[in-house]
Amino acid sequence: MVTRQVLALKTLGSSPSPVANMFFKSNKEIKTEDLKLSDFDKIWTKFCFLDETGTLSDQQNQYFTVGMLKMSQPYYLQSKLFFERSKIGFYDEIKFNKLSEKNVSFVRTAVDALFETKSIGFYSYSISTKSGYYLKSFDQNPWLAYEQITLKLLEAALSPQEIIVLVADYVTTPKNIRFEVEVKKKFNQNKKRLALAGVCRFDSRSNDLLQLVDLLIGAITYDIKFSKGLVGGSKYKLEVVGYLKNKLGTDSFLKGFRNYNFNIFVDKTDHLKTAQNKGENEKGLSS
Questions:
Q1: pLDDT tens, 227-264?
Q2: Around Cβ 238, how many Cβ atoms within 10 Å?
Q3: Structure pTM?
Q4: Residue 63: closest CA among 52, 71, 72, 50
């Protein structure tokens, strides 16, 4: 029988910057549920940028990753990326699946900018469409899977005395799918407070931070698929994968990865590699 192994996740990048300290007064003696709207200087407001790679209903591509970048002041990283774009006159969308000689240099610059930015956290969840947990829990409903994985990431990311705003990449869905409504309602009901202020979708072509999430989750997923022999290996994709792994000080994402600012969870019940994967690490992600 497949068992459950919980991946404990600390709040990532939670140490405030010097600028933030001027506005935020941390008071751990006040319980989160006792805070009022008038306690605005005691409540963190964080932005989370969410994107996905792969398709849960696609049995051929198999691996699906949802990733989320969390920060209190998106302006700093966004403006840095805009400045770097302006310097070289590069305004194309950056996507992992479109890596080439033309854009790989700027992609490395974007990754550098991410690592140079303070108070940022990254969370991701990778799962296979052949995973025992996926088949048992979601079967033919990829939209339910996407919604529940998003809730797992939000649960892992949320800290006490904090309210999150979620910005997600736009995805065309069936008319009966209300992702924005259901995620906000279920998350706040679960937390019994206003924890998620709202969810809004944007076309990632309009936002560098969503594109940056695409690069991160694309690299993670590609490394997993390459390790499993599912892809042959693209020069520029492997270059970016290696660059990210070098930045993090890891040699593989196959078993996930965790440090203070990054928490990468990989479900290991796909049964592709070895028999010992069976039953390990079923659904992870808890705060």
A1: 988 888 899 999 999 999 999 999 999 999 999 999 99
A2: 16
A3: 0.83
A4: 52
